[in-house]
Amino acid sequence: MKSTVLAKRYAKALFAVGKEDNALEQYGQALNSMAELYGAMPEVQDALTNPVYPLEVREKVMEHLVKSMNPAQVMTNFFKLLVQKKRAEILPELAEEYQALVDAEKNLVRGTVVSATELSADLNAKVKATLEKITGKQVVLTTAIDPSIIGGMVAKVGDLVLDGSIKSQLAGLQESIKGSN
Fold it and tell me: How far apart are CA 13 and CA 20, in angstroms?
């Protein structure tokens, strides 16, 4: 819980600077790259957060990582600050929070559609248009396939969940049959 609050604070600060510099996308890309690297490589996590290593060593590791990415100077300073303040472990949450702020600025929401089989491009476009109409925002959809839902689809956008899967309908039917005994 504490790290989420910290991630929001750092994301808001970076967002304010990014907006002022007109570089929201650029800063977001650098942040996402670092968060992906941090999440994908346990060695990087260990090198940036393990208190066994002196702070100077952790700073050097971050410096080396940043040098390979070649981000804007603001992001270089930001990443160094995260290590100095012993906050590198919030990188993944920080990237998510920052992206949420950027999306809100652009009146954009991200959602997923899970279906039993791959959706046609036409059906995908209709689902996207319907979700945009419901939310009043531009929707960026990712799709996934889950044969366990049997048929239909489950759409999630923010807190909104539209479950039209056969699996949930069968579960509802089963509950109503149990309840009528």
Answer: 11
State which residues of the chain have pLDDT below 50: 1
> What is the spatial distance between Cα 30 and Cα 18, in angstroms, rounded to a whole number?
12
Q: Could you tell me the residue ranges of all domains in the chain?
A: 2-104, 107-179
Domain at 2-104: CATH architecture: Orthogonal Bundle (1.10)
Q: What is the pLDDT of residue 154?
A: 93
pLDDT of the residue at 74: 95
Q: In this structure, are residues 94 and 31 in contact, taking their beta carbons and an 8 Å threshold?
A: yes
The C-alpha atoms of residue 17 and residue 48 are separated, in whole angstroms, by 24
Measured CA to CA, the distance from residue 31 to residue 34 in angstroms comes to 5
